[in-house]
Design a protein that fits this description.
Layout lengths: L1 H31 L17 H9 L7 E8 L3 E7 L5 E7 L12 E4 L2 E4 L2 E8 L2 E7 L3 E6 L2 E12 L1
Antiparallel strand pairs: 1-2, 1-9, 2-3, 3-4, 5-6, 6-7, 7-8, 8-9
């Protein structure tokens, strides 16, 4: 009986050593594995105009701009509020026909200073002539420059 007990104890000890060795090997494998590359989530929505994408990348954005709000007024003022893959929000304004050629500084304005505000977005443009703010909602565009305010009703909208 003592012999069987000793054999059982020795077998249990050897088995325990193998389990311990295996666990140690598994822990070592976990330590040497490379960390996972963070997943970049592409925002959902239609792509923003190419001119906005280029301007955003020039401003240091990783790109991948998608439309989170698009509006057009009856006098062909168009605004895209866009979000990039890093979550930053941008304003792309344009005055001209649908599908026209956006030219920054001529008929288009790209702004990086944009915040979400009361169901819409507020973009700010500071120039030597003063500060202009653009309040963009799905229902109206309000432009305020040095205390003078103009409001434009929206005739077309897309919201993601």
């Amino acid at each position: 009986m003592a012999l069987l007990g000793a054999a059982g104890a020795a077998g249990g000890w050897f088995y325990g050593q193998r389990v311990a060795d295996r666990r140690a090997a598994d822990r070592g494998a976990e330590i040497t594995e490379q960390p996972e590359t963070p997943v970049v989530r592409q925002p959902q929505g239609d792509p923003c105009p190419d001119a906005a994408e280029a301007a955003a990348e020039d401003a240091g954005s990783p790109g991948g701009l998608v439309e989170i709000l698009y509006i057009r007024t009856e006098d062909d003022r168009q605004v895209w509020i866009c979000r990039d893959t890093a979550g930053s929000i941008f304003y792309q304004g344009y005055v001209g026909p649908v599908g026209g050629d956006l030219q920054q500084g001529t008929n288009a304005l790209f702004l990086t200073s944009v915040t979400e505000s009361g169901g819409g977005y507020l973009a700010t443009n500071e120039t030597a002539d003063g500060t202009t703010t653009y309040s963009v909602t799905p229902y109206r565009l309000t432009q305020s420059t040095n205390g003078k305010e103009s409001t434009y009703p929206v005739t077309e909208r897309r919201q993601s």
